[in-house]
Fold each of these.
Amino acid sequence: MGSGETLTFWLPMLYQKGTTFIIVPLKNLGKQMANVAASLKLTSALVTHDTLTKLLLKAIENHKYHVITISPELIVDLHFWGLWKQKSWCKGMDRIIVNELHCIDGWWGCRGEGFCPNT
C-alpha cells in the first residue's frame, strides 16, 4: 500500500465513496498510485497526455472512478475546467491530494506560469 506518508491518504478512500484526485508530478509515480488503487479494489484511472480521451473524460465526468491519478498540468487543463465549474460534479469529490507537494514550485517553471494560471 505504500509507506506511512501515503498510507494516510489511502485509508479514507477505503471508507468513503466519493472521487479522489491524486496529483503526481511523475508518470511512474502515477502508475504506482494507480496500481495501489487497483490492489485495494478501488476503481481508478491514470490520466496522462497519452491516456486522456473523450471517453475517459466522459467517464470521469460521470464519476465512474473512485481514484483519479493525474499530472499537475492536466488537472488545470481546459478539458477539466468545465468540470471544476460544475457544483453538482464537485459535490461528488471527496478530496484532492497533492503528492510530492514539496516540488510544487517547479511544476510549471518551464512554462513560466505559477500554480494557478490566469484564466
Amino acid sequence: MNMNRKKKWIIVVVAAMLCGAGTYYYIHNKSKPVAAATGQQSAMKVTKGAISSSISGTSQLDAKDKQNIVIPVDAIIKTMNLTQNQAVKKGDVLVELSVPSTETNLKEAQVTQQQLEKELAELQGEQNHMTISASMSGKLTLASNLDVGSQVNKTTKIGTISDTSQFKVKLAFPLQEAVQLQNGENVELTVDGYLLSKIGTVSSVSHEMKADTNGNKIVDVEVLVTNDGTLSAGMKVKGTIGSGDSKIESTELVALDYVRTTPIFSEASGTVKSLKFKDGETVKQGDLIATLFNDDLQQNIISKQAAIDSQKIKVDDAQQKVNQLTITAPFDGVFSADFANSKSNVLRNYPVGAQITANTTLGAVASLSTMQLAIAVDELDLTSVKVGQKAVVKVDAISGKSFEGEVTSVSNVGTTTNGVTTYDAVVSIPNPDSVLKYAMTATAEIYIQDKKDILVVPIQAITTTKGKSTVSLKKADGTVEEQHEIKTGIRSKTQVEILSGLAEGDEVVMPTRKATTTNAQMPGGFPGGEGGPPAGFQRGEGGFQGGGGARP
C-alpha cells in the first residue's frame, strides 16, 4: 500500500518537473532570435548586379516558308520539270498535268458564255432602238403597211429617206456626140409640161453602146442637177448639149431620180407606239420619226444577265480546275523530293506520260533564307513572351557559334501533357548563308527582360509560400531573422531581383543542400539565472527541439 503511494508520488513529481522544464524553456527562448548557424549554412551579401530574364527551349529547325508539291487530281504527266535539290524561282512551272475532260469542259463553258453575251448585246441593242430617228435630211417615205400599233421586228423596214437637194437623170445621146462629152460639162434640162429649164452637169458617160428604135447608136450620159426647190423626183426631162445649129437633144424624156436614198429599219422588236411624221414629209437629220414599246424586253435583259452571271461562275470553276493542272513554284527556294520520301526519289516513278493519282506528294519547295524554331513555353511564362523579342539560338551541330533570332508568333492554342500546358513560340532566324539545315536540333533563349544596377540575391536564398517571398536575414549581432519578407522582381536561373525588404550589404543565410541537427545536452536540475531545462531535454534546430521560434 505504502509502496503504491510512493510510486504515485514519484510519477507526479516527474510529471511536474517535465511540465516546468518545458514551460521554462519556451518562455526563455520565445523572444530570442536564433543564433547564426555554423557548419550548416553560409551567408551571402546582397549586392548590385544585372539580370537577364529569359526563357529557353529546344526543338528542330524548320524552314519558315515551305510548301508541299501535291498532285490535285488524277491526271497524266504532261511535263515534268522537277529534279532533286533543284533551285526554283517563284512562278516557275514545276509540273504540267493533262485531264482531257477538264479542258473540254472549260472550252464548252466559254463558248456558252460567249453566246449568252452576244444575245444580251442584241437585247441591249434593241433597247437602244426603241426610238427611230432620221439618219439624214430628206423626204420621208413610210412603208405602206406601217401605222401606230403595227408589230415590227429587227428587220422590219419602216420607210426611206431620200435626199432632195440633188437629182440625177440618165439621158441617151448619139454616140458620136456623147463620146466627146467631158465630166462637168453643162447640159440644159427641159422639164416636160413646165416652162422650166435647169442647167445640169455631166457626171459620167457610159462605155456601153446601144441602139435606139431606129437603129442609131446611142450612149447613156448621167447628168446631175441641183434642186432649187422647183424640182421633184419623177419629173420628166430632156437634155440638150451644144449651141446654135450644133445643138443635139437626148433621144427621149427620162424621169428625175434621187441621188441618195437611205432605208430605215426598226432594229428592234415591238409595237409602234407613235409616228412623228407623215408619209412624204421632209425630215432633218436626227429628227424622231417613230417610237416603239416592248414590255418583255427589259425582263429578257434581266434574265439573260442572270444566265451570264451563272455561266461565269461555271467558267471560273472550270478555269480553276484547268489552272491547277499547272503547278508552279510558290516562292524562291529549293525543291527536294526528300520531304516526300527521304529514302528514295519519288520523281523516278513519274516520267512524262505516266498516270498519277490525286494527293500524291512529290516533295516540297523550301526557302532556307529564314529558318524557324518552335519552342514550348510554359503557361506560367506565356504572358512574358511577346512578338518581336530577341533570341539567341545555338545549334548542336554547329559548336562555338550562336545565331540571332526574333519571336515572330506565339500560339493561342496550348498542348497539355501530364497536367502541364505549354504554348508554341516561334523564333525566326535569318540564314543568308544556308548554314542552318532542315531538322537540325537547336536551342533558343528568348530574352524577356534585361535590368542593370539592381539588388540581387541567389535564387536559393528565397522561399516563396502562398505568394509571399521570404529570406533568412543575418543581423549585425549575428542572430538570424527567419522568414524576413521581401518583394522580388525579375529572375534568372541563378539570381532574383530585390525590389524591397533588403539593402545593399545585407546578409542572407543560404541553406545547405542537406540540413543536419546538432543537439546539446542540457545540464540537469534547475540552475538559477539562465540555466537550461531539466536533464533529458535537447536543444535542436527544428520542431519541438526549438529554433526558428517554433512552439512545442
